[in-house]
From TrEMBL:
GO MF: ATP binding; metal ion binding; succinate-CoA ligase (ADP-forming) activity
Statement: the UniProt record of this protein carries the keyword Cell inner membrane: no
Keyword terms: ATP-binding, Ligase, Nucleotide-binding
Protein name (record): Succinate-CoA ligase (ADP-forming)
Pfam families: ATP-grasp_2 (PF08442)
Matches recorded under InterPro entries: ATP-grasp (IPR011761), ATP-grasp_succ-CoA_synth-type (IPR013650), ATP_grasp_subdomain_1 (IPR013815), Succ_CoA_ligase-like_bsu (IPR005809), Succinyl-CoA_synth-like (IPR016102)
An individual GO BP term: tricarboxylic acid cycle
Originating species: Dulcicalothrix desertica PCC 7102
Gene Ontology CC, one term: cytosol
Length: 411
C-alpha cells in the first residue's frame, strides 16, 4: 500500500490531539447538518478534497447565517476540484489573524534527517521558495533548541518566537510519533495577542508506517475503499492518475489535461472513472516504455473493466511518433467490432453492449496530430462502431456523457 495524504479535518483532529491549537470545527456530511451546528456564526465552510486551490475555485465560503450556510454547502458538495467531489465539508469558526506564517517538518531523504522549515510568507511554493524559506536540520536528538533556532531565523522575537517554537516542537513530535513524511501548517495564524492557530494543514503518512499503526491502517483502508470502490483493476495502482468509480475513463498526455477533462465531465453531469496521465510510465516500472505501449496497455486494462462504458481520450500538443496513436486506436476499434459482431450473432442483441469494450471518444488537438486525425476520421467512416472524433474538448465531454446515459425508448 502506498503512503497517503490526510484530508484537512483529519489533520485538525491529529493537531488537536497533540496540542497544536486549532479552531472549533465540525464535520459536515450533509447540508442539513448545519441546522445542528454547534459553532457560532460567522463560520467558514471548506471542501474536503485532496486537491489544492480550493479558495480560488469556490471550495471555501464564509457565511453568517444558517440559510446561507446550507446554500453554500449544497454548492460546495457539487463542486469538483481537480476532478474530485467532496464527501465531507469542514465547518470552522472564523479567525482574524494579524500575521500568517508557513511551517513544516519534513523528512529529507537526501540527508536522512528531519528538517524544520519556516517562512513569514504563507502559501509559498516549496519548489521555488528561494531564500525566503528558513530551515534547520535536526542533526542529533531533538530538543526545543532546534525549534527556537528556526523561529529566530524567521525573524520572530518575544512571545511570538515562543509561541511559534512551541508549535514547531509539537509538529516534530507528531511526525516522529506517527512515522510521517510531512507535517505542514499553511498558514499558521498569529493574532494581535501573539496567540497561534493552525488555520490549515497537511499531513503525509509514510507508506511503511501504515502497517505499524493500527489506527492509521484503519484510516488507510477506509480512504482506499472510498477512492477505489470495490478494489477492482489493481493494474492501475502504480500509474500516475486517479482511480475513481464512474462510467467514463479518461486518458490524457499531461496532468493538466487529465484534471481539466475530469472537471468538465463532472460539471456536465458525468462520472469519471479511471483517469490516467499517459505522459509518464509507472514510477516502479523499470522496463522502457513508449507512448504507444502505454496507450495500448491503458486501453487493454480499461476495456476489461465492466463499469467503464466510455473511454475519453484527450491528447493535445506534441507526442512522439504521433501516427502510432491512430494505429493503436484502429486496432482497438477493429477488435471491438469483431467481438461485438460475434456476440450479436450469438444472441441476437445487436444494440446491447454485451462485450466489455467501451465506446471511444477521441479529442486530438495540435498540428502534430494531423496525421492521426486523418486516419481516425477515415476509420470512423468505415466502422459501424460509434467512435467520436473532435478537436473541441467541450464537444468530446458532452458526447462522452451522452453515451453513458440510459436509452429512452419512445412508445
Amino acid at each position: 500500500m502506498r503512503g497517503m495524504d490526510l484530508l484537512e479535518y483529519q489533520v485538525k483532529e491529529w493537531f488537536g490531539q497533540i496540542g497544536i491549537p486549532v479552531l472549533p470545527s465540525q464535520r459536515i456530511d450533509h447540508p442539513t447538518d448545519l441546522k445542528r451546528l454547534k459553532i457560532p456564526y460567522p463560520i467558514v465552510l471548506k471542501s474536503q478534497v485532496s486537491g489544492g486551490a480550493r479558495l480560488k475555485v469556490g471550495g471555501v465560503r464564509f457565511v453568517e447565517t444558517t440559510i446561507d450556510a446550507i446554500a453554500a454547502a449544497q454548492n460546495i458538495f457539487n463542486l469538483p476540484i481537480m476532478g474530485e467531489l467532496p464527501e465531507v465539508l469542514l465547518a470552522e469558526a472564523k479567525y482574524d489573524a494579524e500575521q500568517e506564517l508557513y511551517l513544516a517538518v519534513v523528512i529529507d531523504t537526501a540527508v536522512c534527517r528531519p528538517i524544520l522549515l519556516g517562512c513569514q510568507e504563507p502559501d509559498i511554493d516549496l519548489d521555488s521558495y528561494g531564500d525566503k524559506m528558513q530551515h534547520v536540520v535536526v542533526e542529533h536528538e531533538f530538543s526545543p533548541f532546534y525549534a527556537r533556532r528556526l523561529a529566530l531565523k524567521m525573524g520572530l522575537q518575544g512571545k511570538r518566537m515562543q509561541t511559534v517554537s512551541s508549535v514547531i516542537e509539537k509538529m516534530y513530535y507528531l511526525l516522529i510519533e506517527k512515522d510521517l513524511d510531512l507535517v505542514e501548517i499553511n498558514p499558521l495564524g498569529i493574532n494581535s495577542q501573539g496567540e497561534a492557530m493552525a488555520l490549515n494543514g497537511s499531513i503525509s503518512v509514510n507508506e511503511r508506517a501504515i502497517s505499524r499503526h493500527p489506527d492509521i491502517a484503519l484510516m488507510a483502508t477506509k480512504m482506499h475503499n472510498r477512492y477505489n470502490g470495490n478494489g477492482k483493476n489493481q493494474d492501475f495502482k502504480e500509474w500516475e492518475g486517479l482511480e475513481l468509480h464512474g462510467k467514463i475513463g479518461i486518458m490524457g498526455n499531461g496532468a493538466g489535461s487529465v484534471l481539466t477533462t475530469m472537471d468538465l465531465v463532472t460539471l456536465a453531469g458525468g462520472k469519471p472513472g479511471f483517469c490516467l496521465n499517459l505522459r509518464h510510465a509507472s514510477p516502479l516500472d523499470t522496463s522502457p516504455t513508449t507512448f504507444k505501449t502505454r496507450l495500448e496497455k491503458a486501453l487493454s486494462i480499461m476495456s476489461a473493466d465492466k463499469s467503464i462504458q466510455v473511454i475519453l481520450i484527450n491528447l493535445l500538443g506534441s507526442i512522439p511518433q504521433a501516427i502510432e496513436i491512430a494505429e493503436v486506436i484502429t486496432e482497438f476499434v477493429h477488435h471491438y467490432n469483431s467481438e461485438h459482431k460475434l456476440n450479436g450473432t450469438r444472441n441476437g442483441h445487436k444494440h446491447k453492449r454485451d462485450t466489455n469494450f467501451p465506446r471511444l471518444v477521441v479529442r486530438l488537438a495540435g498540428s502534430d496530430l494531423d496525421g492521426a486525425k486523418k486516419e481516425l476520421t477515415a476509420l470512423k467512416h468505415e466502422s459501424d462502431m460509434s467512435i467520436v472524433m473532435t478537436e473541441n474538448l467541450d464537444e468530446a465531454v458532452s458526447e462522452a456523457v451522452r453515451l453513458t446515459q440510459p436509452l429512452v425508448y419512445k412508445k
